[in-house]
Predict the structure.
Amino acid sequence: MVDILGSILSADFGSLQLEVDKITDASVDGIHLDVMDGNFVPNISFGLPVINKIETDLPLDFHLMIRNPETFVRHLVDEDCRFRRSKFKHSVTLHAEASAEIDDDLEMLRAYGYSPRIAINPATPVTALEKFLPLVDGVLVMSVNPGFAGQKFIEGVLSKVAYIKEQNPKLLVGLDGGVNDKSLPLIAKTECDYLVSASYLFNSNNYAVAVDSLRF
Ligand code: DX5
Ligand code: ZN
């Protein structure tokens, strides 16, 4: 069955902890953290000062939409970082497009107990992933152009899931963007392992029903 990760990008930031508690009660499998820098993507969201305040017993899934992610990665591996070598295996996803030199970052993340992953934008050919696949546990296939919640699912990315599984069936493949009850029938035909949801989940009246409705 697919894992469902709740992206807090569409949460009520005025009650962030309550929102995290509510999606936890709704049985999400992890908390997806969309970190944006206003440079790699045309939006600024939140960073470690906000993330550090979140109390949760769920694994965190850092999605770094930032140019030159090494500074953020350095914070994550710092000996004072509360997420380093924690009892949970937190995942950290870097974008294939963000910097030419992320091999060392991916290796360092693994060495400090994180699950390293790579994300790929809709317009980037899937072959751009090839050199990163031996370094990661998973691939996040973007099904919208990153930057904002609430966009329409881009169907054309779905063939990337099969390509990645052909390269290595053990890689965890996620889909991020426009995941909802309308796109789910198409998504359910793929072999993807996890789905990220922001607006569909947080705009629903009942988070548990919304989470259940995305599982297949
Ligand atoms: C987009 C983010 C997504 C976003 C998904 O840049 O990476 O995680 O929060 O939002 P929805 O589920 O509303 O498309
Ligand atoms: Zn995301």
Observations:
- The chain has a mean pLDDT of 97.
